[in-house]
Amino acid sequence: MTATTISAPPLRQRRVRSALKHTGLLIFVALMIYPLVWMVVSAFKPADQILTDPGLIPKDLTLDNFKDGWHALNRPFSVFFLNSLLVTIGSIVGNLFSCSLTAYALARLQFRMRKVYFAITLASVMLPFHVLVIPQYIFFSQFDLVNTYWPLLIPKFLATDAFFVFLMVQFIRTLPRELDRAAWIDGAGPFLTFWYVVLPLMRPALVTTTIFTFIWTWNDFFVPLIYLTRTQVFTVPVALNSMVDSETQSGVGMLFAMSLLSLLPILVFFAFAQKYLIRGIATTGLK
């Protein structure tokens, strides 16, 4: 019998397929980034040309949108940047502290109903946040905490972000239990074992938690909108929303200008932390 061989596609055919594939990908990328590019260009257009000229090549360039937008709400926009930074840093500290302790308890300690608690934690990931909005608001309003940052920070110190708890549990389970036993032999209790043995080895998971918390908290609009009603405590997303509500068509340019500035911390942070994000996701077993 003679074996039949399957000839490889001609070189010209492979090149045509590759060109079509890359052309399709470039068109898809162009469609995805067009709104962002249009926002950047519009931030430098005069206000009367933003909605009348949809092109990406501006006829005139101006920095008035940045100058006017910086003081649009009767105070420097840096105030809102500092407010967002304060909430973001507090949220990062809260998630790192509470989620790591909770994950260590669920992954290493033996206690009754441990699996039930872990199942409840995973189930809470699927629970829409909007279900909890009204009872949480009533709770914080009764303690007169509205128009403060406590409603935004207290849940972070109570391990309410179940996604990060799950991420850290998965990572801790990959660590050898012999390290814990060696610490126990040396007389260390659960907390010392966590602090000196497990926590230093959790760096990839901690970095991943830091990155996601920073991005999600900085961009969060819904929760601050509920609890913050005074201008001086606004975060950046709420301030941008107030700029839209309080201005007419002339405020569109200021909105785009300040939105562009609000993206810079995210882009800079992600540029420096990207390699740690990929490493952290890979080592926690999330594909």
From TrEMBL:
Subcellular location: Cell membrane
Name of the protein: Carbohydrate ABC transporter permease
Record domain ABC transmembrane type-1: where: 81-273
Keywords on record: Cell membrane, Membrane, Transmembrane, Transmembrane helix, Transport
Keyword Membrane attributed: yes
InterPro entries found in the cross-reference section: MetI-like, MetI-like_sf
Transmembrane segments: 24-44, 80-104, 116-140, 152-172, 193-218, 252-273
Superkingdom of the organism of origin: Bacteria
PROSITE patterns reported in the protein's UniProt record: ABC_TM1 (PS50928)
Pfam families to which the protein is assigned, alphabetical: BPD_transp_1
Similarity field: Belongs to the binding-protein-dependent transport system permease family.
UniProt main location, coarse: membrane
Gene3D superfamilies found in the cross-reference section: MetI-like
Mode of membrane association: Multi-pass membrane protein
